[in-house]
Amino acid sequence: RSWSVHIDQSLENLFRGYHVGMQTGDIEFAMFNAFNYLVHSFVCGRKLVKLKRELDLFGEKMVEYKQIGFHNLIRQMQLVVSYLLISNDSSSLLSGQNTEIKDLLDQATKGNDTFAICHVYIFGYIEAYIFGEYELAADMIR
């Protein structure tokens, strides 16, 4: 089914999963659903202003409930969305030597967190591609 239904069809269930997790006290389940809701929202092209608000809101909840792993995963997406909202055809965060992204990558590398490392690169190459930095995007994939 997941291959035959558009990704935006998952948003309602993921959002509901977040609320069910919060209501039942399963905070990790709630934040897992929130994380996936945010990623799916980005991938399916939700409006950046609304997505930024949701990233900030869920990010605050993740910190409040000490779900720092999930917060670190969405931090890269928060940076990309913020940068897309304020930039105009300038170079990407990664080619601009953004220190926060370097810190996220260093932290993930030190913790041997391959999922977080992949996440940094995935959003990095998406951003590089959006700004037409195809060589940088290709290098990140390799």
TrEMBL record:
<dbReference type="InterPro" id="IPR053159">
    <property type="entry name" value="Hybrid_Histidine_Kinase"/>
</dbReference>
<protein>
    <recommendedName>
        <fullName>Nuclear pore protein</fullName>
    </recommendedName>
</protein>
